[in-house]
């Protein structure tokens, strides 16, 4: 099975061949590197930009204005913060012009912890991104969704923020991408750039098929009746595993992958919480003014009388960064054990 | 301020056709009267904030006249700032739109009552939305220029902003992105230098002799011009635009202009007597050369003044946007 970086690459290949994507660009996005996580290797429209995040976002806005279809990359989400006002402008352009201009552009950026990236390569962006109206925001947790969400992002006529959980970029999927060869080694040989001299290398793309994960639709990844666990990105597989493990203790947890943070699938969450009466939101962004806090507020306001226990949020600690030492990173963002404990605790709470 | 490198043109000759001179004058008057009406509306409480470009007509009118107007990369893009009503008038825009935006009525054609005066936007003519944060337009302009370079043809991108904003990194980004070797962009980068940033004089903030000099480090062709002389501005813009159209490379132009009513309503919006008035100076020349009489020019101004007063009265009666329209256009929808 393809890993997430390969899935993103294949989706972008599909998009430049079939969906009108004209530019895939950013720092080290083009040859020879093809992105620091290799997600843009071998793409025909990929090019290297100056080392200038504001320039990258500005270029994407201008290209989108002129009818091109850009996919811009900010190498790490930590460096997207100095473009916030441009992101705000991209998000408000349609509204501010009373619908006259729309910006069909995609901004992709790796987010979160998990690669021992220290203070400036571990930040999340979901709370900040969801605070900028006018953007659609997606975050996959497996390669197939990564493929399908990128296809949808490239089909959009509005700005789409595509958040890549960097801890998952090297994880292989459990489902095959439509058109992906059955042999992983063969896939790697076809589309992974060789080490060393790449000047003569060209990828051999598989015959990929259109597969779109609709923006705004979440997914129940594990059905359950006692507790609802809502997550996305890096923490989603941890939630799934925690739920599977807890089944042995008699805790039957339902796990929802949001997949899109805006506009999000409230109906899916609501239906599940009405069924279970208990909900835990899990993400790794810092916990103060966290996107999960919004979900908790909405849960309280709309579902209060359906709840058997207070809704909970398990998120990253409100500290200025993630320290490099293993112990520091592990203590800063939710880990497997934290999630298991939180679900167990919520499941056993009595009114 | 060091003496600008002005073109040494003969003040007594008018090297443009009479018809063009009369047209430029007409548009300068129209734009001036519009701005004065907008200021009056603000002072009468028919708007919350005024910002505009009275004093820049001599540069902005020729710019509008020389643009290749249309939609899409075959035509010129303008990433404007908020002092360019004269460019809009020269492109053929009706002044009532600006009045509607000042009064923030539902019929405001640029933002539906959502944005400040002078914040134009018109996709049909490639006028990119004007934003209040200064200088951000400089970082977007290379995007439309790249699309045009690829598209072919002679369409160019024009970006304008003020001198104070060149302190922002986005101005440097524009120079970097438009001049990458092998990827030079058809981008006319304009800085209208009125020597002020709200209340702060440029002299104490900017060490460069001319803003345009900054382009030299990037091998960008540059020029500092007198933007208070419409004939000079027309000829200089024409030459610069022809270069960008043909060579598909950037050009950095610094135009020295006046700021006749200060920065905005934030600084009072009162007439500043010690700035050169480009319209008065132009009228003096037109009269001296026998192109137009004082009477004709006065009549023109009176006619526009009456027209726009009537428009302002009309706009006052128009409805504000309905509250529920805040939910419209957050996202574009496929038609």
Mean pLDDT of chain B, nearest integer? 95
Which chains have the largest interface? Answer: A-B, 37 and 46 residues
Number of helical stretches of at least 4 residues of chain B: 9
Q: What is the radius of gyration of chain B?
A: 19 Å
Per DSSP E runs of 2 or more residues, the count of β-strands of chain A stands at 12
Oligomeric description of these chains = heterodimer
**How much of the polypeptide of chain A forms β-strand, as a percent range?**
15-25%
Global mean pLDDT of chain A: 97
Strand residue percentage of chain B: 5-15%
Describe this structure in words.
The complex is a heterodimer of chains A (351) and B (335). Chain A has eleven helices and twelve strands. Chain A is an alpha/beta fold. The longest helix of chain A has 15 residues, at 4-18. Chain A is globular and about 65 Å long. Chain B is α/β, with parallel strands linked by helices. Chain B has nine helices and seven strands, in the order ααβαααβαββββαβαα. In chain B, the strands form two sheets. Chain B has a five-stranded parallel beta sheet, sandwiched between helices. Chain B has a two-stranded antiparallel ribbon with strand order 4-5. In chain B, helix 1 packs across helix 2, helix 2 (57-66) packs parallel to helix 7 (230-247) and helix 5 (137-151) packs parallel to helix 6. The longest helix of chain B has 26 residues, at 18-43. The model of chain B is unreliable at 1-8 (pLDDT under 50). Chains A and B meet through helix 2 and helix 3 of A and helix 5 and helix 6 of B.
Topology (elements, then pairings):
The complex is a heterodimer of chains A (351) and B (335).
Chain A (H helix, E strand, L loop, with lengths): L3 H15 L4 E4 L19 E3 L4 H13 L4 E4 L10 H13 L9 E6 L14 H4 L6 E3 L4 H13 L4 E6 L18 H8 L27 E4 L4 E5 L3 H13 L5 E5 L2 E3 L3 H11 L2 E8 L4 H13 L8 E5 L9 H7 L3 H13 L3
Parallel strand pairs in A: 1-2, 1-3, 3-4, 4-6, 5-6, 8-9, 8-11, 11-12
Antiparallel strand pairs in A: 5-10, 7-9
Helix pairs in contact in A: 1-5, 7-11
Chain B lengths: L17 H26 L13 H10 L10 E3 L5 H7 L4 H7 L34 H15 L5 E6 L6 H10 L8 E7 L2 E2 L2 E2 L19 E6 L3 H18 L3 E6 L21 H11 L5 H23 L19
Parallel strand pairs in B: 1-2, 2-3, 3-7, 6-7
Antiparallel strand pairs in B: 4-5
Helix pairs in contact in B: 1-2, 1-3, 1-8, 1-9, 2-3, 2-7, 5-6
